[in-house]
Fold this sequence. Notes:
The chain is α/β, with parallel strands linked by helices. It has a single domain (31-301), classed as Metallo-beta-lactamase, Chain A, CATH 3.60.15.10. It has helices spanning 2-30, 80-89, 105-108, 111-115, 134-142, 185-189, 212-222, 244-250, 265-270, 281-284, and strands at residues 40-44, 60-63, 69-72, 94-99, 119-125, 148-150, 156-159, 163-169, 194-199, 202-206, 230-232, 254-257, 277-280, 287-291, 298-301. Strand 5, helix 5 (134-142) and strand 6 (148-150) form a beta-alpha-beta unit. The longest helix is centred in the N-terminal third of the chain and has 29 residues, at 2-30.
Amino acid sequence: MRIRFSALLTAMLLWLSGGVAQEAARTAEIFDRSGDAGQLTIRFLWLGEQVADDKPGDCMILTSPDGQVMVLDCGHPLASQYVIDALDAMGVTRIDALVISHPHIDHLGGVPALYARYEIGTVYSSALVYEKSSYYRAYVEATANTPHVYLKEGDSFQFGDSVRVDVYNPPAEITYPKDYPTGATQFINNQSLALKFTYGESTAMLAGDLYAAGEREVVSRWGDALDCDIMKANHHGASTSSTSVWRKAVSPQITFITSDTIEDLSIAKKYTKNGQQMYHTLIDGCIRVQTPGDGTYTVLTEKDRTTTLFD
Length: 311
C-alpha cells in the first residue's frame, strides 16, 4: 500500500511539475518581444491578489509595430513588482509613453517604482487633480521632470509611426463637484481617459474605470466613433460599468477583464454572447493580444482555461 501511494504521489508531482513548466514556458512566450515587429501588441497583466485591502489594479504594456513601449496604468504600489518583472522579461529599459487613466492608487501607485528603474519618455494623463491622495502626490513628484501631456476629448497622438490614439474622455472642461474630493470615487472614475488605438484596420478601446454614467456620457458625445474590435472592460468588469449602451457602441469582438476576482459573473457573461470572446486575468493569467493591422487578432494566455464558468 505504501509503495502504491508513493507511486501515486510521484505521478502527481510529475504532473504538477509538468504543468508548472508548461505555464513558465507560456509566460516566457507572452513576454518574448521577438515577434512584436510589425504588430500592435497589448499585454494585459495579472497583478496578483488583493493587496492592503485594495485591488492590485490595472496595467497594460503596449508595443507599437516599430518598437515603441507604452505602459498604460501601473497598478497598486504593492503590486509594482509584477509590472517590473514583466518589463524586465521583455528586456525594456525605456518606457516611451507612460499613460495614467485616472489618479486612483490601483492605477498610478506603481509610478515611483517605475521611475526608480526605467527611463521614461513622456507622461500622458488627464488634467484631473487629486491632491488629497498621497499616492497622487508621489506620482506628481516622480513625474515632475518628464514631459507631460494632458489629454482631453478630441485630442489625438501617435504611438510610434503607425498607431493613432484618439481621446474620447474626459471632457475638455472638468467641473469638480462640491466638497471635492469627499465622496468622489465615482466622479474620478468617470474622468478616466477613454482611448481608441487604431492600427490599419485594427482598433482597441481602453477606458480605465468609467462607471455607467460616464459610459453613457461618452456614448452621447461620440456614438459610432467608439466602435472597436477589442476592448478592456471598464472598472475591472464590475457591475458599476459595462452598460448595454456602452457595449453596443463599442461592440467588441474580444473583451479583456483585468481583476483579481470575478467582480460580477453576469457582467462577464455579457461579453461571451453572440460569438464574442472574453478573457479574464484571474482565470487566464497574463494575456497577450497581437494584430498586424488587418483586423485579425492572435491571443495567447498564460494559463489554459479549465472552467466553463463563463459559458
